[in-house]
TrEMBL record:
Molecular function via GO: polyphosphate kinase activity
Superkingdom of the source species: Bacteria
Recorded family membership: Belongs to the polyphosphate kinase 2 (PPK2) family. Class I subfamily.
Protein name in the entry: Polyphosphate kinase 2 family protein
Presence of keyword Transferase: yes
Origin organism lineage: Bacteria, Pseudomonadati, Bacteroidota, Sphingobacteriia, Sphingobacteriales
Record-annotated Polyphosphate kinase-2-related domain positions: 30-267
Keyword Kinase annotated: yes
Keywords: Kinase, Transferase
GO annotation, biological process: polyphosphate metabolic process
Coiled coil regions, renumbered to chain: none
Species of origin: Pedobacter frigoris
Amino acid sequence: MKDEIKQYFATPGKKISLKDYSTSYKGELVKDDGKDLLEEIKGQLSKFQETLYAANSHSILIIFQAMDAAGKDSAIEHVMSGLNPQGCQVYSFKTPNSEEYEHDFLWRHYKALPERGRVGIHNRSHYENVLVCKVHPEYVLKENIPGYSDVKQIDKKFWKQRYESIRNFEKHISANGTVVIKIFLYVSKQEQKERFLDRIDDPAKNWKFSSADIAERQLWDDYMKAYEQTIEETSTDECPWYIVPADQKWYSRLAISKILSDAFEKLDLKFPVLVEEEGKKLEEIKQQLLKE
């Protein structure tokens, strides 16, 4: 499946057109085989996580971005279920609160970064500031940025600076040991429609649906343009984007798990080796315990 993962990779510096990517690709696998493979990879992730914690040199930050009903929540639930919850932290970012609006747009996201040895998952992220805010530039005015008191002032220069801020932010944390994995769950408009209808028809899923989701759906093309430009501007060698097909949930979960597994493998982390003196102390303690 490693070769398949390459097709989701958003090559840094390359023009991005989402039409070049599939929302429904599932390879030659059938669903049952895909589920079995997912369980196998989840077992590998558990071992990788233990090494990550022991080495205490890196952290993993997984960013999920998508349109509504693309499957972010279920992907987090299924893929991360194989990890030790003591070594994970999940943040689901909502509209900034009054305190967060008193700081720059990256402040609350920097606070939520995982510590060394841990896996952090951001369900939506700092990218909302170049996605939702790009489609709704009036939201930027709430940040009270000097020189921006009118939507007309939020021009190409503003967005260029914001993309640059994001690249610099990710470059900095990457250089300091955080591996950033950015996943765009790419769902089709038709599949979103089917999932919305399912949420409406199923009383147990009604809570997942909001009338605001329909309003945002009407801006689908605007969002696709925002995603294309965002991915194009911020997919870098250190922190690349992956555009994962999301029409088949079982396959998207499998693809995400493989992307994560590959990232762990590249780190090539090892368990710490005790210095000779510490090893002798352990042997002495062992002998003491055996004599009890």
